[in-house]
User: Fold this.
Amino acid sequence: MDVFLSHMQLIPTKKNSYLTGQDLTGALTPEQDESIKAAPHTDQLWQVGVTARSVSVSEAGVLRSIQFTPKGTLPTSDDVLSALAAAILTPIEDVMLPAPLPVIKPRKVGFLQTRQCPDQVITSLHNLLEKKGYEIAAGKLEELEAEVAESRKKVLEEEAAVRKAATKVEFIPTPKRVCFVCSKEIAEKPSQCSVCKAVIYCSADCAKKNWTQHKQLCPSFKACMKRLEAPDSMHDFPFTFYNSKQNQLQSFNAVNFLSRNELHNVGLFRRFCHCFDNVPFGELAFQLQKQIPEGGKELFDTLGLAQDMYPLSKALKLKDGEEPAKAVTSWKSYFDAAGIPFDSPSALVLESPLTVFHLLTKYYLPSLKADANSRKITLHMVSATTEADIVHIYETLLPLLPNTDLTINMFGPAITPNAPLANPATFTFSNSNSTIKITYTNGIYASEILEGKQTPYEKPDVVLCLNAGLLGPGGQYVPLRLFYERGVKLLVTEPMEQSIHILAGQLAKAANVILSVPPTPNPFRQPVFQFNGNVNLPSWSNGFIFGFH
Assistant:
């Protein structure tokens, strides 16, 4: 403290004197008592420093008072009270401050850990403040800081809840349907095929015009629609926002759902609207990487994920000896094992890595039993798009794939050609026994890459294409014939099952290609029903699986 004062004595005050401190003056007057009682409160925690012969009181690093015992004796609780009263009623006027310090009092004062007084002084001061009715509590700074932090956390949570309620985003009603034949918007209740109930018409005339073509597809449409019926309805998700036909999150409300959860345009969720359509795939991952230092829990919120998911590589809660490949087979089993609440929007991005996990464990590897030797897998993902922007969520594969070194090479013409980190762009995640390495590259997948002849890519053990949309107007380019002729293990997901049935018929007829993996529901499809204006067919991102291996 003496060293501190030797510097402070050089600072002039607004009274053109010098800060040298004052002697403690004993008991307070009745007028001072009443003034302290009337002073307004501040929630800022004040700090009390006690040396062998002085007491200082500070607020947020600003000194409000410093006083000395008359004979250089150890300060008592009465001495500390006198210094506190001076800090409240007559704080130091410092020309370094833009305005005089206001007359206020703290709710709590904390004694610094460097204090040179017994704990009894703290207890006595607390009792004295309580007796005088000042509405000020005294304690050890280290203990009070923890209490204040917890109290502040609760206040922030309450403020966030109030703010969220005040700005609650309402879900929009179901958009109007359009006719499958003439594309006319239907103002009244729409008609649909009475047999399959999948196709929407504006009138009997349009239904009649379409019958010649529709009757060939009607049986398969009807089979697809059965996926939505009990007891095994594909609407049966475990989430609070999607768990039945009556309670389902649909694509036209996905942005509203994220806005309700304060996640619109945040971290991994930025591709759920059109705000970033002009940004090439992969560049959002670069931005996140710059903001998240290695091991940076304090910036984990940048991803838009709850803190209880940190780290993404944390161990799953499984029974002793239970293997992830056998224990994690559905959204419910994964969320239970990972300890994630069922109202969490994280499912909207976890869909991608969990789909990869499911495809590997069910269709490529007989099991993922942890062996003494590490398993090495090279996976090529063709026509990648959104996957390149959410690479950070793939860290969740580490506890799902024990003793595994997995390399995922993503390729796609829609991926950014600019790779500021490396060429190809590379992201690596690891824990004590597994490693996930992800690269992505701009370009169309070529036979040289498949054969392992293009550096730095190794020949793949399996090839994936997620949300291929092969028959849609924005479908991906996937060289199915090349993979089939080379005997490559290829696994593909499509939003709609009907698309796979049509594609399978075309492949069998034109190229004699037979699917060894028939259309199968993906248990880790995204829990957002994809609304289509002219059909009722079941559709989800990564909804159905097919392939050959």
Notes: Residues 1-25 have pLDDT under 50 and may be disordered. The CA atoms of residues 287 and 368 lie 34 Å apart. The longest strand covers residues 539-548.
